[in-house]
Design brief:
Blueprint lengths: L3 H18 L2 H18 L3 H5 L4 E6 L3 H15 L4 E4 L6 E9 L1 H32 L19 H12 L8 H7 L3
Antiparallel strand pairs: 1-3, 2-3
Helix pairs in contact: 1-2, 4-5, 5-6
Length: 182
Amino acid sequence: MTTERERLLQKIRHVQELAERGFDGERESAAATLERLMGKYNISEQEISREYRELVWFRYKTAIEERLLAQVIYKVTGKIASGCVGAGSGRKHKKLGMECNPAERLEIEFLFEFYKPALEEELKRFLTAFMHLNQIFPDDESPQAPQPRTMTKAELMKIGAMMMGMDYHEPNYRKALERGDE
Protein backbone atom coordinates (compact mmCIF):
# COMPACT_ATOMS: atom_id res chain seq x y z
CA MET A 1 0.00 0.00 0.00
CA THR A 2 1.41 3.38 -0.95
CA THR A 3 1.62 6.13 1.62
CA GLU A 4 0.38 9.67 1.09
CA ARG A 5 4.00 10.84 0.64
CA GLU A 6 4.61 8.19 -2.05
CA ARG A 7 1.45 9.23 -3.91
CA LEU A 8 2.58 12.85 -3.76
CA LEU A 9 6.03 11.88 -5.07
CA GLN A 10 4.43 9.97 -7.94
CA LYS A 11 2.44 13.05 -8.94
CA ILE A 12 5.51 15.26 -8.66
CA ARG A 13 7.54 12.80 -10.74
CA HIS A 14 4.83 12.95 -13.39
CA VAL A 15 5.08 16.76 -13.41
CA GLN A 16 8.87 16.43 -13.62
CA GLU A 17 8.52 14.17 -16.67
CA LEU A 18 6.38 16.81 -18.36
CA ALA A 19 8.96 19.46 -17.45
CA GLU A 20 11.71 17.36 -19.05
CA ARG A 21 9.89 15.81 -22.01
CA GLY A 22 6.82 17.96 -22.63
CA PHE A 23 6.22 20.26 -25.56
CA ASP A 24 7.10 24.00 -25.54
CA GLY A 25 4.59 25.80 -23.25
CA GLU A 26 3.74 22.56 -21.48
CA ARG A 27 7.39 22.18 -20.48
CA GLU A 28 7.69 25.69 -18.96
CA SER A 29 4.38 25.38 -17.13
CA ALA A 30 5.33 21.98 -15.70
CA ALA A 31 8.75 23.27 -14.60
CA ALA A 32 7.14 26.16 -12.70
CA THR A 33 4.60 23.79 -11.12
CA LEU A 34 7.38 21.37 -10.16
CA GLU A 35 9.37 24.10 -8.44
CA ARG A 36 6.29 25.32 -6.55
CA LEU A 37 5.32 21.79 -5.39
CA MET A 38 8.87 20.94 -4.30
CA GLY A 39 8.95 24.07 -2.14
CA LYS A 40 5.44 23.60 -0.75
CA TYR A 41 6.01 19.97 0.33
CA ASN A 42 9.74 20.28 1.11
CA ILE A 43 10.81 17.66 -1.45
CA SER A 44 14.39 17.45 -2.72
CA GLU A 45 15.64 16.55 -6.19
CA GLN A 46 17.24 13.45 -4.67
CA GLU A 47 13.92 12.24 -3.29
CA ILE A 48 12.23 12.70 -6.69
CA SER A 49 14.99 11.05 -8.69
CA ARG A 50 14.82 7.68 -6.92
CA GLU A 51 13.85 5.12 -9.52
CA TYR A 52 10.53 3.46 -8.93
CA ARG A 53 8.34 1.22 -10.99
CA GLU A 54 4.66 0.57 -10.61
CA LEU A 55 2.04 -1.54 -12.33
CA VAL A 56 0.11 0.67 -14.75
CA TRP A 57 -3.06 -0.37 -16.59
CA PHE A 58 -3.58 1.10 -20.07
CA ARG A 59 -7.08 1.05 -21.57
CA TYR A 60 -8.06 0.24 -25.15
CA LYS A 61 -11.43 -0.13 -26.93
CA THR A 62 -11.08 -2.52 -29.87
CA ALA A 63 -9.07 -5.63 -30.73
CA ILE A 64 -6.97 -3.62 -33.16
CA GLU A 65 -6.28 -0.99 -30.50
CA GLU A 66 -5.26 -3.82 -28.16
CA ARG A 67 -2.68 -5.03 -30.69
CA LEU A 68 -1.40 -1.49 -31.23
CA LEU A 69 -1.13 -0.84 -27.48
CA ALA A 70 0.65 -4.15 -26.87
CA GLN A 71 3.18 -3.26 -29.58
CA VAL A 72 3.73 0.25 -28.18
CA ILE A 73 4.29 -1.19 -24.69
CA TYR A 74 6.75 -3.70 -26.16
CA LYS A 75 8.57 -0.94 -28.06
CA VAL A 76 8.99 1.20 -24.94
CA THR A 77 9.74 -1.47 -22.32
CA GLY A 78 10.98 -4.44 -24.34
CA LYS A 79 8.51 -6.60 -22.42
CA ILE A 80 5.16 -8.20 -23.25
CA ALA A 81 2.17 -6.65 -21.47
CA SER A 82 -0.28 -8.70 -19.46
CA GLY A 83 -4.04 -8.64 -19.85
CA CYS A 84 -6.57 -8.09 -17.11
CA VAL A 85 -9.22 -10.64 -16.20
CA GLY A 86 -12.04 -10.00 -13.74
CA ALA A 87 -11.62 -11.98 -10.52
CA GLY A 88 -15.32 -12.72 -10.12
CA SER A 89 -16.44 -13.02 -13.72
CA GLY A 90 -13.30 -14.39 -15.34
CA ARG A 91 -14.05 -12.08 -18.27
CA LYS A 92 -11.30 -10.18 -20.03
CA HIS A 93 -11.16 -6.44 -19.30
CA LYS A 94 -10.10 -3.99 -21.98
CA LYS A 95 -6.77 -3.00 -20.48
CA LEU A 96 -3.16 -4.11 -20.61
CA GLY A 97 -0.77 -3.87 -17.67
CA MET A 98 2.94 -3.24 -17.44
CA GLU A 99 5.30 -2.41 -14.62
CA CYS A 100 7.03 0.75 -15.71
CA ASN A 101 8.59 3.97 -14.48
CA PRO A 102 6.93 7.37 -15.05
CA ALA A 103 8.98 8.13 -18.16
CA GLU A 104 7.94 4.85 -19.78
CA ARG A 105 4.33 5.41 -18.78
CA LEU A 106 4.32 8.86 -20.33
CA GLU A 107 5.95 7.58 -23.52
CA ILE A 108 3.47 4.68 -23.82
CA GLU A 109 0.49 7.00 -23.34
CA PHE A 110 1.86 9.52 -25.84
CA LEU A 111 2.74 6.97 -28.53
CA PHE A 112 -0.59 5.12 -28.19
CA GLU A 113 -2.57 8.37 -28.54
CA PHE A 114 -0.33 9.40 -31.45
CA TYR A 115 -0.65 6.16 -33.42
CA LYS A 116 -4.40 5.53 -32.85
CA PRO A 117 -5.67 8.13 -35.37
CA ALA A 118 -2.91 7.23 -37.84
CA LEU A 119 -3.95 3.58 -37.67
CA GLU A 120 -7.62 4.48 -38.14
CA GLU A 121 -6.74 6.50 -41.25
CA GLU A 122 -4.70 3.63 -42.70
CA LEU A 123 -7.51 1.15 -41.98
CA LYS A 124 -10.00 3.37 -43.84
CA ARG A 125 -7.62 3.47 -46.79
CA PHE A 126 -7.15 -0.31 -46.61
CA LEU A 127 -10.92 -0.91 -46.56
CA THR A 128 -11.43 1.37 -49.56
CA ALA A 129 -8.72 -0.49 -51.50
CA PHE A 130 -10.16 -3.88 -50.52
CA MET A 131 -13.72 -2.94 -51.56
CA HIS A 132 -12.58 -1.53 -54.90
CA LEU A 133 -10.30 -4.46 -55.72
CA ASN A 134 -13.02 -6.99 -54.93
CA GLN A 135 -15.74 -4.83 -56.51
CA ILE A 136 -17.99 -4.86 -53.43
CA PHE A 137 -20.67 -2.49 -54.70
CA PRO A 138 -23.79 -2.84 -56.90
CA ASP A 139 -23.40 -3.45 -60.61
CA ASP A 140 -25.89 -0.75 -61.56
CA GLU A 141 -25.86 2.84 -60.35
CA SER A 142 -28.29 3.03 -57.45
CA PRO A 143 -30.06 6.35 -56.76
CA GLN A 144 -29.43 5.73 -53.04
CA ALA A 145 -25.71 5.23 -53.49
CA PRO A 146 -23.58 7.60 -51.40
CA GLN A 147 -21.60 10.17 -53.32
CA PRO A 148 -17.94 9.20 -53.54
CA ARG A 149 -15.67 11.46 -51.54
CA THR A 150 -13.13 13.57 -53.36
CA MET A 151 -9.60 12.20 -53.07
CA THR A 152 -6.25 13.74 -53.84
CA LYS A 153 -3.96 12.21 -56.40
CA ALA A 154 -1.61 11.13 -53.60
CA GLU A 155 -4.48 9.38 -51.77
CA LEU A 156 -5.53 7.58 -54.97
CA MET A 157 -1.94 6.45 -55.56
CA LYS A 158 -1.70 5.05 -52.00
CA ILE A 159 -4.96 3.14 -52.47
CA GLY A 160 -3.78 1.86 -55.86
CA ALA A 161 -0.50 0.67 -54.35
CA MET A 162 -2.38 -1.14 -51.61
CA MET A 163 -4.61 -2.81 -54.18
CA MET A 164 -1.55 -4.09 -56.04
CA GLY A 165 -0.42 -5.93 -52.91
CA MET A 166 -3.81 -7.57 -52.27
CA ASP A 167 -5.37 -10.73 -53.59
CA TYR A 168 -8.66 -10.60 -55.47
CA HIS A 169 -11.29 -12.80 -53.84
CA GLU A 170 -13.97 -13.98 -56.23
CA PRO A 171 -17.03 -15.47 -54.58
CA ASN A 172 -18.02 -18.69 -56.29
CA TYR A 173 -21.79 -18.93 -55.90
CA ARG A 174 -22.05 -22.16 -57.85
CA LYS A 175 -19.66 -24.08 -55.55
CA ALA A 176 -21.44 -22.76 -52.47
CA LEU A 177 -24.83 -23.85 -53.83
CA GLU A 178 -23.51 -27.31 -54.74
CA ARG A 179 -22.16 -27.79 -51.19
CA GLY A 180 -25.44 -26.58 -49.73
CA ASP A 181 -23.95 -23.49 -48.04
CA GLU A 182 -26.44 -20.81 -47.18
